[in-house]
Amino acid sequence: MAYYLRRLLGVLATLLVVSLLVFSLLQLAPGDPATVVAGPDATPEQIAAVRANLGLDAPFLSRYGGWLGDALRGDLGTSYTLGQPVTDLIGQRLGSTLQLVIAAMLLMGVLSAAAGVVLATGRNGAVRAAVDYLTTLALSVPPFVSSIILIFAFAVIWQVLPSGGEASITADPGGALRFLVLPALALALPNAAVLARLLATDMRRSLQEEYVLTARAKGASRRRIVWRHALPASLNLYIVQLGINFGNLIGGALVVEAIFARAGIGGLLVDAVTTRDYPTAQAVLLLTVAAAILAQMVSEMVIARVDPRVKARAAR
Amino acid sequence: MITTVHNTPDGEPVLRVRGLTAVLDLPTGPATALHELDFDIGAGEILGVVGESGSGKSLTSLAVMRMLPDAARVTAGQILLHGEDLLTKSEKDMRRLRGRHLGIVFQDPLAYLHPLKRVGAQLRESLTVHAATRAQAATRALELLKLVGIPDAEQRIDDYPHQFSGGMRQRVMIAMAVAHNPSLLIADEPTTALDVTIQAEILRVLVRLRDELGTAVMLITHDIGVVEDTCDRVLVMYAGRIAEQAGTGTLLKSPRHPYTRELLRSVPHLNTPLLDRLPAIPGQPPDPRNRPAGCPFHDRCPDVRDRCTREMPPLERVDADPGHSVACWVAPDTPVQIAAPAGGERRTGRPETEVILSVEDVRVWYTSRRWPWSTEVVPAVDGVTFQARQGTAVGLVGESGCGKSTLAKAILGLQPVTSGRLTVAGREWSGADSHQRAALRRTVQMVFQDPYASLNPRMTVGDSIAEPLRNYHLAGRSQLAGAVRELLDQVGLPARYADSYPYQLSGGQRQRVGIARALAVSPKLIVADEPVSALDVSVQAQVINLFDDLRDRTGVGYVFITHDLAVARHMCDDILVMYAGRIVESGPASAIFANPSHPYTRTLLASAPGSGLTKDTGLKPASGTRPTGGCRFRDRCPVGPAANPQRTVCAERDPALDAVGPRHHAACHFAERDDR
Ligand code: SF4
Ligand code: SF4
């Protein structure tokens, strides 16, 4: 129990540091939101009035403190440019991003596990070589390139899937899924390739472990050794990496959304940064970082459940 | 321990190996790893297989299991299990035999058990892969844990391997191996990683299973004492060949092969008179890549003839004894007696020399911090007092976790002491400034168990030895090469080794380099942690002699940490027996080995290999939590309150280290006096 409490304290401390970083980076960047809000023809007096109105003339630390205090109460401020509460803005767009990230996560898990096991233990040389080649390919292509290739292949040449846009998952689940396939694949492929390589390397190491000899000496079959001995032993590292790659997925999602013309929080962030809409930009950035950290914490807790050695340490 | 060889009803031994030959595919080309091995193991018989690294003993066991690594393959011969040749079986048939008719126990149970699976699940797997139902497997798994003597088996069955002690893990390995009452059980160095008391228990389990189940056992070991205690017959392997094969009694008392004879002479033994020097075998076991022509032992053999360098001697039956065969051209027709050589008590303490190490009531407590506001204190060393003098050797013995390694670290200044005074040649580590620490580091040096790990693999031997000379400005540029040559000479290595890299040396040579490096700064004290236990048996004696010589020549003092009591008896003037962070007995080696006073010392000696297994030492298993207040040993003590409830004083008062004889002290309320 103490272990989880300590972990939680650590996460909270990290979030605090991140919030300060996010806040100061944006506010210290050149450019003044007051000039944007006041419009291109505003006089210096008007700009000063807007600045006072937005509270931008207060000292840096008091601004940060005020924002943090509000944020802790669930008030992320009001968008300078759109005039709506930031929580509403995010709420409208979060669903789309979540669908994409979850779909990509599932694809990443399934593809990487299958490819990893084949790479480490596949007995058919041709299949192994093919998987090896494909992972290398996927590894070297970043999401924005894979997006374009996928659009070209499936939307332009074969025209089996839409090149962009989205549908409501509640009103039209089938349609929503059709819109999800390409962006989720584009997002998942490079990450899955990294994970597959990692899993394969670790499984090869596991297969060299002494306890594999014990299993053979018991009369266990090769298949049993792969699935019941080597894979569970390699799962640990895999889960950690899954948590870390989740952060990559979120980052990648913001880019992929733009390419596939999905109205997710990625677009919101891009607009907010270009127009110096501090409250919105801060909130979106903090949210994505928090999600990434949370994913890592969850993966660690999963490990603490599956690995008795970590569990023993956690129980102390 | 000699029992008759039972054969199976049809008179066929369980395992019959004929002409087994295997090659290793090395980068340099194929090399013969096993050469025409012939041997049998009968039902209920324990065959000991003795040999050094590269002798092929482990390869033989893997060949029998048909589990050779990819680089090795059998090229000729037969491995007959109940008359059926395993070498002609398909992999599928072998899978059916493994675990059912063939069981194997490996050396390091922690590595050989799956870390993420419960002990019970691993045990049940042994059964379910051979078509047992889940319910059958569950019942049998519990039965097996009880059979190998796991206390509270019902509770422990769902534990993970890391929750078991080393000895318990090895019991689990044995339980898995005997799950189906196999006809043949192979145990490959099953007790090497364990403490002596646990080693004795595990060997007792093996012997008992053999007796109860009538299993044929192949026990691979490097330890002659283990052979003496458990085996019916012995196979001595050298360089992939059988050098000699005989009943245990015959082999130990009247061996015929020069290698067996020299090996037996060179190993220190607890019950033979002490010698000034061990009769060491020169050289080292041959590298499998590069075995000499003719008899593989000829470059080390004292009896070598011309013929030996040209022709390989065949394994031939000794006329007088049908169970005895030997591969040697000149094996004498009359057996050699391993006579007790003359020369009684050898070494006595040398109290007249200068004290170089003084340890006064030293405590080392580890604190682990769970929360910023709470700490947990583990007393690793708990009030230890002793002295070491120039030119003498103090032996620290005790089981793992007794605090001996922590104490060694404190002496080396690698671990700050919590309280007490620790002075090396008049200087204290605590409170020393960087200048004084440098001076102290020159005074006390360390020799490690594994010299390979302590030498930089990318540095030549010469550079490794020169490093401390440079660091302390002990030799100028022009003198460096000369100084290195001199140090190599001191440890018996030719000067040309200065340009070699550690991987090009054998284990014994590397340990010599480690010693040369420690000697470079002319220390007054060397702390050596198990300095010979990683070495081949035939090489151990050489290194032990080297330590002896260096002490006589340079007057350096030693603190030896060792679990091998026979080695401690040979090398040390004084012995300190540690238990639970305290010294429970101290005194001259002669007194301690002749009249062990503390019950713990007596159990250690009774458990040492070569002392016979039939004696039950009465030692209770450790209870997990150490008792505090009173005697720390009382939960395990064979004569304390666990055995004699009226001895309540053991729990009430902490026994002090009181004199039981001249310079001989023991911390026990019921200690035996020397003049008993
Ligand atoms: S054959 Fe020759 S070299 Fe080999 S052990 Fe016998 S005497 Fe020694
Ligand atoms: S004091 Fe008591 S418990 Fe301790 S060793 Fe002596 S007899 Fe055993």
Topology:
The complex is a heterodimer of chains A (316) and B (676).
Chain A (H helix, E strand, L loop, with lengths): L1 H27 L4 H6 L5 H11 L5 H13 L13 H36 L3 H16 L2 H15 L15 H36 L1 H9 L3 H38 L5 H10 L3 H29 L1 H8 L1
Helix pairs in contact in A: 1-12, 5-6, 5-8, 5-10, 5-12, 6-8, 7-8, 7-10, 8-10, 9-10, 10-11, 10-12, 11-12, 12-13
Chain B lengths: L14 E12 L2 E13 L4 E5 L6 H9 L6 E10 L2 E2 L5 H7 L4 E4 L3 H4 L6 H10 L5 H14 L5 H4 L9 H12 L6 E5 L7 H18 L2 E6 L2 H7 L2 E6 L2 E7 H6 L4 H9 L39 H5 L5 E3 L2 E6 L28 E17 L2 E16 L3 E5 L6 H8 L7 E6 L2 E2 L5 H10 E4 L3 H4 L6 H11 L5 H14 L16 H13 L5 E5 L7 H18 L2 E5 L3 H7 L2 E6 L2 E7 H6 L4 H9 L41 H4 L5 E4 L2 E3 L10
Parallel strand pairs in B: 3-8, 3-9, 6-7, 7-8, 15-20, 15-21, 18-19, 19-20
Antiparallel strand pairs in B: 1-2, 1-4, 4-5, 9-10, 10-12, 11-12, 13-14, 13-16, 16-17, 21-22, 22-24, 23-24
Helix pairs in contact in B: 4-5, 4-7, 5-7, 7-8, 8-22, 16-17, 16-18
